[in-house]
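Continuing the batch. This is chain 6 of the set; chains 1 through 5 are on the previous pages. Same settings as before, nothing changed between runs. Recording input and output for traceability.
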Amino acid sequence: IFRPHRKHLYQLLANEKQIPHLIISSMYMAVQGLLIIGYLVCLQFNETVILCYIVFSLIVTMLQYIIIKKRIVFVTIHRPLGTDRNCCGTNGIESDQHR
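Output for chain 6:
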């Protein structure tokens, strides 16, 4: 856990799917914004509605995370040999651009 790795969803999207960092950050911002707006709407109701919204939001976001991560890892594992996107050129040195 204390060593650098590329297993976070952000790194997987940027490194494996080649999605620009600005788009990934914008997606994270949009999801957070929607969750906050939903929570603010739920504040008008009683505690049970708020608790249900929080639990529902956690379940949905966890399922989305698991599905997206499994798809990325599945595609990465089943990628044909010689198509490593994290390599630059023929010397096998990892590119600083993807860090």
